[in-house]
Amino acid sequence: MITFKKISWSNFLSTGQHPTTVNLDQNQTTLIVGSNGAGKSTILDALTFVLYGKSFRKINKAQLINSTNEKGCLVEIEFDLNSTRWKIQRGIKPNIFKIHRNDEELDQSHSSNDQQKWLEQNVLKMNYKSFTQIVILGSSTFVPFMQLPVSSRREVVEDLLDIKIFSSMNDVIKGKIRSIREEVKTLDLKKESLMDKVEMQKNFIDKIESQSKEDVDSKNQKIDSLNKEVEKCFSESMEKEDILSKLKEQLTEFENAQERLREYGSIKGKLSQRIQTLVKEHKFFNDNTVCPTCDQNIEESFRVNRISDSQNKAEELREGFEKLQSAIKNEELRESQFKSLSNQITKTLNDISSFNVQITGYQKQIRGLESEIQTITSQVENRNIEHKKLEELRDNLNKTYDDLVKSKDKISYYDFIYSLLKDGGVKAKIINKYLPLINQQVNKYLQLMDFYINFTLDNEFNETVESPIHEDFSYSSFSEGEKMRIDLALLFTWREIARVKNSVNTNLLIMDEVFDSSLDGFGTDEFLKIIRYIIKDANIFVISHKSGMEDRFDEVVKFEKHKGFSRKV
Question: Which of 121, 153, 369, 456 is the most exposed place for a label (fewest CB within 10 A)?
């Protein structure tokens, strides 16, 4: 059982630097009063903040720190669990989350989330939802059990009955099933691959043993045929080499033809120019007796001599020009023969190159066939090794089959466990075992509050209401006051179940303004009788605006605002 001893807070909401401390185990009943905004409900937010890291009311974490001081927000709570003393400290600016066991601070090497999870699972034994159903009944943000969705109702009850472990186990089993299914997929792929490899290896061995000699003979025949082609190409290439040698010898006779043509062309140009000059001179002296430039007479003997000289020189040049023309034609013929021989040499070289390419290709094919023959010969010689490979593949295949069978057996085993751990399995049997007690306690508390209906929950936590004056009623059909009676009856029942289970049993019960909204005067009287005389081993705190109830509580705590800060009077 968790026995909460003391809680204190400072710089939290409207509380200032001076800590506010409330003893939680000194009186059976305590009334907390104060005007609106005085801070009387702050204890609810402080309690859930220090234990779960969040406020009870809808307040952002950043708004929990006092807006005036803006630092040093700290909440501390002390409680006993069996014979162990615990102290939790949680703060903002600076961020603090410390857990003390028997005055020794626990290792904080883990993250805050991991620490919180450890605290809820190993110390408090309840999560936030369960805590607010067992310890706190509020009028503002509290969601009564009957207004929770079905999944949340189940979560609360599983937490109370200590059967959430089955849900955790179920998650583990689901993970294992998912992992094994992936393993089965992998093994199936491996099996298919090994089956293909075994078949290929068998075919390979059969091919080695049945077709090897035939393949070798066929490849040798191809090699012989290729060798003949190589010899043929080589022979033709040698013939072309002889032709090439002769053509090169012939070519030397005509190598200077082009050079001579250039020389003769130059001489021809000079002769042509000289002939033109002589023709002009002959024409000048033949046509003119007076110089056209200076108008002087040209002597006749001089003119006749110049005409005769021009004719003689022109004749000499004509004879030389004819001889030059003959020489040019001869050299042009030689140049034509040079070009013809050059073309023949080029073609012969191309033919030789083509033969060399063919020879290289044939030799490459021969080397490939010889390599294949060597491989086939080695395989035949080493076929025992291939048989050994086949046996290894078969062994791996058989082992894969065995692994598949084992994995599928595991899946069947985990599927069975999974079916037991589902909501309709072991948890349903445990819930069904406690349902009569739950329904009995709910109706007992309803009768104590003079609400005579038969209210029962089924194993899906849906309600059935039977009453002489109500037909086909459900929780939502009742008035707010009647709903409040049902909510209180469920709250007291959950505490009773927690006490029976002991793991989530606690001394603390806080109710915020339950009298101020829905309960009428008669309901309030019945409720006060229950918390004083029926509920045992509990320290009950009631927060209320109502006056005139102070004498019905063991202790009265008042909160007020002083200079803008809340304080306990």
Answer: 121
